[in-house]
Amino acid sequence: MTADITTTIQKAREQSIGDLLRRSARRYPDKTALICGDVRWTYAEMDAICNRLGRGLGGLGVTKGDRVAVLSRNSHAFAALRFALAKIGAILVPINFMLNPDEINFILANSGARLLAVGPDLVEAGRAATSKGTKIEQLIWLPGEDATEPPKDVTTFADLLAAGASPLEASVDSRDIAQIIYTSGTESLPKGAVLTHEAVMWQYVSCIIDGGMAAEDTILHALPLYHCAQLDVFLGPGIYLGATNVITGKPVPDHILSLIAAHRINAFFAPPTIWIAMLRSPAFDKTDLSSLQKGYYGASIMPVEVLLELQRRLPGVKFWNFYGQTEIAPLATVLKPEAQLPKAGSAGKPALNVETRVVNAEMRDVKVGEVGEIVHRSPHLLSGYYNDPAKTEAAFAGGWFHSGDLATVDAEGHVTVVDRVKDMIKTGGENVASREVEEMVYRLPAVSEVAVVGLPDPRWIEAVTAIVVVKSGDTLDEETVIRHCASQMAHFKVPKRVIFVDSLPKNPSGKLLKRELRKRFLRNETLDRAIQKNFAG
Question: Is 387 left (phi over 0), alpha (psi -120 to 50) or beta?
Fold first, then answer.
């Protein structure tokens, strides 16, 4: 076979995230693809807009492999940027808009991003984050859900669309990098998970099959698109299938309820904190939620009592628990509707394109009921951590990806997460590295020792809790600790509680025993029982 025909065949076999939008536009040109505020695009319109946006980015010098960061709340423009970048082979770097400028600056500098797209309320945060040490050449202003005027000195989304609607000629292969998503670990600094188009699209297939998704769905996307759960478990598969996607940047319970009723939403994802807030809203029982058929949750354990309440008050809704992490794009396991109550608290079984084991330190499968680490093999997986070969090698030790989560597995193969090797706290749907908070608390001169853990909370599911030993002769109060952290960290990382103790439990080698701390402050109850007690009381 000649080199020419090999290249021709490779071109014919190309598939990227951008191709999925084009194909849906050809299948359903006149079907509504996206609704956001007053914006409504058909699939044909959305595909054309993304082509124009890709051309506009090219006019700014963006080429295949360039990194483009986005700091924005959910909007039609965010969604369009995602697919435009995919079409031209540029790499998306989504950033949590709750981070402070220094935290944003690290991600921009580490990723080497050339452009930063900012939402209407994040222009100043973007300017502060790019003031030093990055390769950012300019800001791009993205319109939000509500009509606002852009600053006069910034290139806008509309400016890029003015580039024209001629077809794009970029060649993007499934093995090319689609995105770098930064994830916290036990280290103070986040790691960039490198994900190819292929990895993300294999994950779409798992979501669609195991999540019962269909082209007929009307999906509400209310949780932040900077997070891979909303972006890649729901928006991506929705576009792939040709579903209708309603986007909002206002994940407020009453607003969510009103959108479900107004648009006859039948599929909705949120972490337990949002489901709980919706249940507690006075508008819940006054809103027509009869269209809702599929409810998805993840990021935290759903308290059993809350699950029972959801099933009682939404009897026509089937629920799925999706468990995973950024590094697996992010779906790993699924607890399906029929297992919700029999296996309550479980993360379910491996998704379609995932192989999952729970292993001991020798990489042997643990026995039923024994605790081990969750490891995965899957085409969903990251290609590595950006510019960090040492952490990449450690994560794939033994030929499996090490999740860092500790779990048990039952006789039917259902996995239940019991702890986190990396001491990650999942609070209100956000990941917080306990060590990062500990290092901040340690900056207070009066602190002798501190351990940060997640404790059950009716609002946050896990509340970031600092357990502090004060130096002899010094004094310290809760308000001082919280104010100190709040002045230097994103608000979701700030301790919600501070507990003062005389000493922290350690093993004979001096290792801090955080599990013992959790037990002490849970009064030796299980996590599920403690959470239920909080809700009952």
Answer: left
